Each structure stands twice: as structure tokens, then as C-alpha cells.
Amino acid sequence: MAGSAKYTAILDANTLYPMLVRDLLLSLASVGLYHARWTSAIHDEWTGNLAKVRPAIAAQLPGIIAAMNEAIPDAIVEHYEPLIGCTVLPDESDQHVVAAAIAGHADVIVTFNIKDFPPEILSPHGIEVQHPDDFVMNQLQLQELVAIEAIKSMRARWKNPPRSATELVEALEKRGLPITAAYLKQAEALI
């Protein structure tokens, strides 16, 4: 597919690890709030970082990647490599993310490293950058009931260990999503 009619987001590696942020972003994508995309290189980056910190789960990572790729149709951006280097970024190692965003017809790059993707570099390509907290809040504000239901379903899937709504809110705050956590704290009875 050349592009998507839905709002399309490239998820940077730092949003796919930690697991909670990945699960939240993919839960919102799976109900059609936006189209999530990534590359094999993005997978390699986040899984490599995770395997360094938690080598005991390294063997599980190929299964997680396969499940992600299956859960989100047309998520993998391919043939972006010729565009690497078409922009100058503060961190050259992020050029593949911008190349993927251009090739993948993305509207936004979702990343914790906002400063690494200057708006003046992205805007000529029609791409913006958003912190995951802002991105999730945008989804909640645009389609609150659908987003809340997706988050409720996400929490219901957690069995080992299960988490209460309060624990989910606290975990989101610890993972760098304080605005989302504060918003969901008001809706704990719904999630």
C-alpha cells in the first residue's frame, strides 16, 4: 500500500520499549484510531536495546515482533533506504526514522526524543513530531470512548500480573506519560 487514508504514525524505537508504552500505542492502533508503522531497523533498535538490559527475554523478541507485524496490517515500511541522508538531523542515527516517515507517508513521528527531530526539518515533508504523551492524549481527545475502551481491553489482557486501573495510571506516569496518566486517573472506573 502506498499510503493510508488514516492518520499515520511512525513509532520510534524508544516508544516500542518499554512494553507498557508499546502496548498502549498498539492498542490504540488496533482499534483504528491511527495507522501505526515502523521498519525492520526500528525493530532491530528497540529489541537490541531491550536484549542488552534483559537478556533473559531475548529469545521471546522474534515472537513479539511477529505478533506486532501481524496485529497491525501494513505496518512495515520498506524501500525507505534511498531516502536516508536526505535530511540533516542533530543525531545522524535517526535519519532512517525520517526516511521511513517520508516513504511511509507518515503524518507524525512519535518519539520521546523530540529534540532529535526539528520541526523545520520535518515540516517540508508534511511530518510533525509528537511526544507519546501528547500523541496518546490526542487520540483520547479525538475519540475518547474508542480510546478508553481500547485501554480497558489492554488492561483486561494483562494476566501475569494483572493490574488495577490505579496501577495502570501510576505505571503510565512512571513511563513518561504524566498527562495521559492524569487524564485516565479521572476515568479509572471506566478502565
Labels describing this entry:
191 residues, Rossmann fold, 2 domains, four-stranded parallel β-sheet
What does this structure look like?
The chain is of the alpha/beta class and 191 residues long. The chain has 2 domains: 8-136, Rossmann fold, CATH 3.40.50; 144-190, no CATH class. It is 51% helix and 7% strand. The protein has helices at 13-16, 19-30, 40-53, 61-71, 95-103, 119-122, 132-142, 144-157, 165-174, 178-185; strands at 8-11, 35-37, 108-110, 128-130. Strands 2-1-3-4 form a 4-stranded parallel sheet, sandwiched between helices. Helix 7 (132-142) runs parallel beside helix 10 and helix 9 (165-174) packs antiparallel against helix 10. The longest helix has 14 residues, at 40-53. The radius of gyration is 16 Å and the shape is globular. The model has no long low-confidence stretch (mean pLDDT 94).
Summarize it.
The protein contains 10 helices and 4 strands; from the N terminus they run βααβαααβαβαααα. By secondary structure, the protein is α/β, with parallel strands linked by helices. The radius of gyration is 16 Å and the shape is globular.
What is the CATH architecture term of the largest domain? 3-Layer(aba) Sandwich
- Distance, first to last CA: 34 Å
Strand order of the largest sheet: 2-1-3-4
Please bin the fraction of helical residues. Answer: 40-55%
Give a quick account of the main beta sheet: strands, pairing sense, barrel closure. 4 strands, parallel
The CATH topology of the largest domain is given as Rossmann fold
Basic shape? globular
What share of the residues does DSSP label as strand, in percent?
5-15%
Number of helices: 10
Report the structural category.
alpha/beta
Q: Can you identify the CATH superfamily of the largest domain?
A: 5'-nuclease
Look at the structure and give the CATH class of the largest domain.
Answer: Alpha Beta
SSE topology string: EHHEHHHEHEHHHH
Mean pLDDT: 94
The total strand number stands at 4
Radius of gyration equals 16 Å
The figure for the number of domains is 2
